[in-house]
Amino acid sequence: MNGFDSVEDTRRALEAVGYICTPQVATVVFLAAATDKPLLVEGPAGVGKTELAKAVAQSLGRPMIRLQCYEGLDEAKALYEWEYAKQLLYTQIVKEKVRELIGAAASLSEAVERIAVEESAFFSERFMLARPLLKAITAPDPVVLLIDEVDKSDPEFEAFLLELLSDFQVTIPELGTRRAASIPLVVLTSNSFRDMSDALKRRCLHLYIDYPPPEQELAIVRSKVPGLAEALARHMVAAMERIRGLELKKKPSISETLDWARALIALQLDTLSPEVVEATLGVICKHREDARQVAQQSAKVAASS
Amino acid sequence: MVPLILDFVACARAAGLRVSTGEVLDCLGQAGRIDPLDESQFFSLLRANMAKSRLEQERFDRIYHLYFHELQREIEDPSVSIAAQTEEIDAQVRAMAPRDPIAGAIADFLGGDPTAYLHLLRQIDGEGDSGRRGPGANLGSLVRRLPVLTALDQARTILADYLAAHRRQIHWEARRQIDRHIRQRLDSARRLLTEPERHAVSAQGIRRKPPENPDRLGERTFSGLSPAEVDQMRQVVARLVRKLKDAVGLRHAARSRGLLDVKKTLRRAARYQGVPLELRHRRRPPRKARLMVLCDLSGSVWSAARFMLNMIYAFQDCFDRVRSFVFVAGLVEVTGLFDHHDIDRAIAKVLTETDLEYGAATDYGLTLRQFRSACMDAVNRKTTVIVIGDGRSNYGNPEEGIVAEIRDRCRRLIWLNPESEAFWYTGDSEMRTYMPLCNEVRPCQNLNQLSDFIRDLVL
Ligand SMILES: Nc1ncnc2c1ncn2[C@@H]1O[C@H](COP(=O)(O)OP(=O)(O)O)[C@@H](O)[C@H]1O
Ligand SMILES: [Mg+2]
Fold first, then answer.
1. Which candidate, B324, B408, B332, places its Cα nearest to that of B370?
2. Pocket around ligand 1 at a 6 A CB cut-off
3. pTM for the model
């Protein structure tokens, strides 16, 4: 499939690969796919930003190429790198040939001249290590390019990305310009550690994913943890909603909900009591103080609506 | 749909959303692909193109609701036309002060075009930021709101008078509709004026969009800020500390690559007929910074201390080994509080739950003695010690010997003074005593100075 037909089709296709989303999310994804616009997805950790990119790739039947960003990420790690070691190794192996080549040279400069003529043998794709961005551009078929946690990269790298996103071509001095055969669908995700530049944002469609509304979270639990009894699932999702209402250092996200659901199954529990909440706190809260707070409020949290 | 979108864009821009022409074109280009009758799709189309941060989204939602819901409200019974009458009232509102932009904006608004009114509100708020400081720093924007409120009330009177005067000419049903229609719009206008925008509180509590122009706040002393500004400052401080952390991390990353280890590289080269194919680097474990911060919370530095607590909290959030203390007369360690609570609660707890006697006279001498007996052992060549305070010790024993001892044991002793330098050597200030003993003394009265400090801080 090369695109989605409509917003509803997008929503259904995503659901078919296990990603459950609101019509708003589906609309923005649909527009991004239909117009080849990069998509900047922001939101708290664990609400399914990365998962969205994977689901889009899967439902479009495109390969996904992922670039994980981090502080200090540079072009060599993101775009391409020459494999010096391999080049050196080849030089060693073809030493004899090189000797022949320069053997008849009258002077040092002539020898250098002769080697220079053969330079292209060493700066060819054979010695190039393609990194995710170059792979995405040179891929023969359209791909989904996930640039994950772009907020962790440095501003300089962001500027470089911006250039790439505007014309989808790179120039490798030794080899010339590579232009994308087909524009990849680019999904950038951010936890808003820092704000992206206006220029980058202007390039992208923007999507903010928040903690899901209860019905949606319930649907996610149903699809990802099918073994959980319906009533318990409902109860748990309602409790999660209340926990998010507390003033926590780190609010639990969808991943925590799923972990919690799995824990309840593993412990073979079929109701959610304050005691159960307290016993399974470790799954929901990463911070000790958060856990203490939830434990304090466990009666309220576990109330059956 | 194109004129509608363009009209909305004008409105959004008037409300301060920065929508570029490119984004408008994108939006128009995509409009044909959605089902325009499905509002959720239409809304998502506009929002994905025009609001590209959490804060902008909130403003966008507000304007969207105003434009597409409040102002487009259907008039109940289309068979009763009230257009002529509402236009007449419009004209009267405009005429109440012919050259006054406020009257004009309200008249436009009643007529369904909120652009001028939104623009007006923006000016009111924009000026609010640079208004007077000191107590009642908010007064400026309140005062500027007042004429608008008055004008809205006047418009309401005009409406009532008009309806009363035309009781005979206009059917009661039409009168009722005119009244409802205009009153709803006046209510919308009033709400925009009086209900301040909520600030997006994101998942992590303090992670909000940084203020657009922090420099404007940079020179203001900490003591003269409105609550909203305090909030902005906090975000700037948190962001700075995070940057600092990143910078430190980067240095470690660069260093751990390290220098070329010639010996190892040559040994390796033996495998490749003497060609150094694999370069080997010396690895050095990164130096873990240790930080101890002592913060004066007494009344004389109170307004600045609030920010300092924010900074300390951010430090502790970002770095592994930070110990935080606060003092007035006597020292209390608050590391645990900061570790286990979100920032607001942590600060509230520092102020309410520690054994600190806020009313007591500041005693640097006692504080230092307590520090020596409790923590001096933990101070070593890796520790950076930061003292925040004005050094006003109510003529008690300054115990400068202990300061010297700390300086000798630690890596670096830095003193931040939130008081204006002009007063450092007056009254009960011991700065003259402490200053020569520190590795570094800095004034720290406003955000710029605090930022400079955070930036320069090499742990
Ligand atoms: N809408 C969704 N439908 C199905 N699963 C979801 C959804 N959102 C999140 N998840 C699940 O939550 C987990 C965390 O999602 P992830 O994409 O890693 O979060 P993020 O990238 O936003 O931090 C994933 O394991 C995923 O299975
Ligand atoms: Mg992720």
1. B332
2. A 18-21, 45-51, 189, 220, 224, 254-255, 258
3. 0.69
Pairing relationship of beta strands B330-333 and A128-130 according to DSSP bridges: unpaired
Tokens of A168: 């989808």
Distance in Å, alpha carbon of B292 to nearest chain A alpha carbon: 23
Helix (H) / strand (E) element for B388: namely: strand B383-388
Q: pLDDT tens digits for chain B (459 residues)?
A: 888 999 999 999 998 898 999 999 999 999 999 998 899 999 999 999 999 988 889 889 999 999 998 887 655 555 667 788 888 888 888 888 888 889 999 999 998 899 999 999 888 876 444 444 444 445 566 777 888 999 999 999 999 999 999 888 888 888 888 898 899 999 999 988 887 665 443 333 333 333 444 445 667 777 667 777 777 777 777 777 777 666 665 555 555 556 677 777 777 777 777 777 777 776 655 456 688 999 998 877 777 787 788 888 888 877 778 899 999 888 999 998 888 888 788 888 888 888 887 778 888 999 999 999 999 999 988 888 999 998 888 888 889 999 999 999 998 899 998 888 888 888 888 888 899 999 889 888 887 788 788 777 755
Q: Which among B44, B53, B246 is the nearest to A195, CB-wise? A: B53
Give the closest-approach CA distance of A136 to chain B in angstroms: 24
Locate the domains of chain B by residue range.
2-127+136-194, 217-239+288-458
Query: Which of A24, A72, A205 comes nearest B250 by C-beta?
Result: A72
Q: Where are the domains of chain A?
A: 7-77+133-208, 81-127, 214-302
Burial per residue of B280-303, b for 16 or more beta-carbon CB atoms within 10 angstroms, e otherwise: beeeeeeeebbbbbbbbbbebbeb
Q: Which of B57, B54, B61, B63 lies closest to B13 in space, CA to CA?
A: B63
Kindly provide the ipTM of the predicted complex, given to two decimals.
0.85
Architecture of domain B217-239+288-458: 3-Layer(aba) Sandwich (3.40)
A40 CB neighbours in chain B (<8 A) are 52
Superfamily the domain A7-77+133-208 falls into: P-loop containing nucleotide triphosphate hydrolases (3.40.50.300)
Q: How many CA atoms lie within 13 A of B375 on its CB side?
A: 23
